[in-house]
Write a structure and sequence with these properties.
- With 317 residues, this protein is mainly alpha-helical.
- The chain has one domain.
- Helices cover 64% and strands 1% of the residues.
- A two-stranded antiparallel sheet has the order 1-2.
- The termini are far apart.
Length: 317
């Protein structure tokens, strides 16, 4: 809407991505702050509460805490983007496809857990992975076939590409999507565990996306310049704003949890931002907390299968 106002009335201030990104941040922040308490009251009345793993008795006090709060900040983010971004931009369309698609997979998983009253229910591991794969493939194909996104690989802060992957970029991007969504999903637990590192990751990647889309700044920082991707900065800032509003209720002691609806949506957006900023390698550093949590799970499972012993008392740590 704001971009349309610029086009219709020549309001020059609204042509700037940074200005509209700021509007998106505050719109999503305020919407989430307004909606979350109302959702909490509704969720309590409908018994949409967080099922607790029976093997983690010290989390029993959180048994009646409402979950699926991710649906609120995802909707707030989508509304914020629709109001502030240039909707005809193919990278914005792909970004919306990403956040909505991955959120819907998480919603189905959360709903199954709530209805069964068991945290181990919901989608099966294979079913969940299959749905995540479908969304990852759809976004990857959209980037190549519709957005005409370059398939070249870059090393951070080296302006020239290393090589062109061609259509082999699709499986590479799929791996980035699946690894990131599962890493954020594993990290999400209680009382803001995933919210804070997600805000940090989104903010950092949002800056990289903005620079990548800026012809002058990308040259200064030896980053590739890709026309049009800068608009997706609005998605990064808007989701960050929504998460900041959510954190008010998700921080200790948490009044609500995001559920897989939120964690998978966040992971999908983080992966998408890294891909379009050509910063997949930096994702390991930017999302270091998610990497550590994922590695802890891999070590735990591997050790238990090979040695019959656990490395950690509980994983993710």
């Amino acid at each position: 809407m704001l971009y349309s106002l610029y086009e219709l009335f020549d309001i020059n201030l609204l042509q700037y991505i940074s200005v509209r990104a700021g509007f998106g941040f505050f719109i999503a922040f305020l919407l989430t702050l307004y909606a979350i308490p109302r959702y909490i009251a509704w969720a309590i009345s409908k018994k949409a509460k967080q099922p607790i793993n029976k093997y983690v008795p010290n989390h029993a006090s959180k048994q009646n805490t409402p979950t699926m709060g991710g649906a609120v900040f995802v909707i707030a983010t989508v509304v914020g983007v629709l109001l502030t971004a240039q909707i005809s931009n193919p990278y914005i369309i792909a970004g919306l496809l990403t956040i909505i698609g991955f959120a819907l997979v998480g919603f189905q998983d959360d709903l199954g857990k709530i209805l069964a009253g068991d945290n181990l229910q919901g989608l099966s591991s294979r079913g969940k992975m299959a749905l995540l794969l479908v969304i990852a493939i759809a976004v990857s194909l959209f980037l190549i076939l519709v957005a005409d996104f370059p398939t070249t690989i870059y090393i951070p802060f080296i302006k020239d590409p290393i090589f062109d992957m061609g259509y082999f970029a699709i499986p590479f991007w799929i791996i980035v999507f699946l690894a990131t969504t599962n890493a954020v999903n594993l990290t999400d637990g209680l009382d803001g565990l995933a919210t804070v590192p997600s805000i940090i990751s989104l903010s950092t990647l949002g800056i990289l996306v903005y620079v990548t889309g800026h012809a002058v700044f990308s040259g200064y920082l030896l980053l590739p310049n890709i026309q049009g991707v800068g608009e997706v900065t609005i998605l990064a800032t808007t989701l960050s704003g929504a998460l900041l509003g959510f954190l008010w209720y998700n921080g200790y002691p948490a009044e609500i949890f995001m559920g897989d609806t939120g964690s998978l949506a966040i992971g999908g957006v983080i992966a998408y931002l890294a891909i379009i900023a050509k910063s997949e390698a930096l994702l390991l550093l930017i999302g270091l907390i998610f990497v550590v949590e994922t590695v802890s799970v891999i070590l735990q499972v591997g050790s238990y299968k090979l040695r019959g012993k656990r490395v950690f008392l509980m994983a993710p740590i």
